[in-house]
Specification:
This protein is an alpha/beta fold and 438 residues long. It has 17 helices and 14 strands. It has a ten-stranded mixed β-sheet with strand order 11-8-5-4-3-2-1-12-13-14. Strands 6-7 form a two-stranded antiparallel ribbon. Strand 1, helix 3 and strand 2 form a beta-alpha-beta unit. Helix 2 packs across helix 16, helix 5 runs parallel beside helix 8 and helix 9 packs parallel to helix 10.
């Protein structure tokens, strides 16, 4: 089993807590608060699920012959994930050259809408706190997009929307029902329309500047809603789907200025991802390119310029993956514990099925069930059993050895709680402004 984590780390703030003992050499990655998942799991509601999960894992590890039979679903804590990624549709009106989901787009596979709503309602009753409406397609193309957003808000869920920006007016129409902890993020990846066009290949005449120009309408509809500009950083030599990807790293500062002037709340940078040839996992696509150092230096220079454009109302965020790339720590985030604990707390619901992680969306080895896997109590109970077995059998140390996992820190933290159970009782409850997005 994995190495123990010193108890002294477990209560440390994210700025000082490290992900695993391989990071004890002073190369800690500082996480944004939105990625401090350990802190989020000590919030009301989530804390109970954490306690039950840790107790369950301790019992499983102490049980005799636990590997000999399938786990009894009735023994699994009666909780759904705290947070899910919800793919409303596979339909997309872009043909992005850097898309990691290209093979699942526009398949025509759909939800039964009423079963989707019943799934969301049942999950809320069992502990679901937040939903990120995101990938697999463009969510605003879902015919009942607005109804679904309002339904989730009526259940008391925190809701976030990740969109390509072509449906900004639809988002503005539902913004009134969103709260200050909800957010919208637009995937734009460019600072100039010329680059935007060749990267995204929109099927209709959508302009980067028109999309950005509609952002104030969302902010006017609800000033409390945060709206972010998402930027996947690409470089010369990046490749996916047997295609070379358009380079955009030289437009980081330009995009930052555009985002600030367009009334976005922030801009966030993350590195280009490709698919691993062995298990199809999403991995940072820089590999061992001969000009890797030059790429990193160019990105760092642009990011430094971008940071200078921050104001009191506009921030620049670097994702954990980008920080790992810039600081030469990719391999340290690839060192995973044997068990991925976060697949209990965060999953992906898609028209293609229910999956244990966004990295394995549409991959059979990460599948927990079909699209109706939590649509009624009977299906939910069966899915609990599948999830329990996958938590036991899915070896993250090998399956995710090339993944710069966003949940690396919290997975090691939970592993430490399981191996040092007394530490859980000493954790302080997080009663600050709630943020359940995982």
């Amino acid at each position: 089993m994995s190495e123990k984590i010193p108890v002294t780390r477990l209560d440390a703030p994210v700025s000082t807590r490290v992900a695993n003992e391989s990071l004890e050499e002073g190369n800690d990655l500082l996480l944004d608060s939105i990625h401090d998942f350990a802190n989020k799991l000590t919030q009301p509601g989530a804390r109970d699920a954490l306690q039950r999960y840790v107790d369950w894992q301790i019992a499983q590890r102490n049980a005799e012959d636990v590997d000999a039979v399938e786990l009894d679903p009735s023994l699994v804590p009666d909780f759904v994930p705290i947070s899910i990624n919800l793919d409303l549709t596979t339909a997309c009106n872009y043909q992005c050259d850097h898309c990691v989901d290209l093979d699942i787009l526009n398949t025509g596979i759909r939800y039964d809408h009423e079963k989707l709503l019943s799934s969301l309602e049942l999950m809320t009753q069992r502990g679901l706190k937040s939903v990120i409406v995101i990938g697999g397609g463009e969510p605003t193309l879902y015919p009942k997009f607005g109804e679904t957003i309002r339904f989730m808000k009526s259940l008391g869920l925190q809701v976030a929307i990740v969109s390509n920006g072509t449906g900004n007016l639809k988002i503005a129409e539902v913004a009134d029902c969103m709260d200050k902890n909800d957010w919208v993020r637009l995937s734009l990846d460019s600072g100039a329309d010329e680059t935007f066009q060749v990267m995204h290949n929109p099927r209709k005449a959508f302009s980067l500047y028109d999309i950005c120009g509609a952002v104030p309408k969302i902010r006017e509809a609800n000033p409390d809603v945060t709206v972010g500009f998402s930027y996947i950083v690409t470089w010369r030599g990046a490749n996916i789907n047997d295609r070379d990807i358009v380079e955009n790293l030289h437009e980081i500062a330009l995009a930052t200025r555009l985002a600030r002037d367009s009334k976005f709340s922030y801009i966030s940078f993350k590195p280009f991802l490709t698919r691993d040839e062995i298990n199809n996992a999403e991995v940072i696509g820089i590999g061992e390119q001969s000009h890797k150092e030059a790429i990193v230096a160019a990105i760092q220079q642009q990011v430094d310029e971008a940071v200078q454009l921050e104001t009191d109302d506009f921030k620049v965020h670097r994702s954990t993956g980008l920080k790992a790339l810039l600081e030469g720590q990719i391999q340290k985030l690839e060192k995973q514990p044997q068990q991925c604990h976060m697949q209990f707390f965060r999953q992906v619901l898609s028209p293609l099925g229910l999956y244990n992680c966004p990295v394995y969306r549409n991959q059979e080895h990460g599948k927990l069930g079909d699209k109706n896997a939590v649509s009624d109590v009977q299906a939910y109970d069966a899915t609990r059993g599948v999830a329990a077995n996958l938590i036991r059998d899915f070896n993250a140390t090998t399956n995710c050895e090339k993944v710069t996992c966003l949940y690396n820190d919290v997975n090691w933290w939970i592993e430490g709680l399981i191996q040092n159970p007394d530490a859980l009782a000493n954790l302080s409850d997080n009663v600050s402004d709630p943020d359940y997005f995982l």
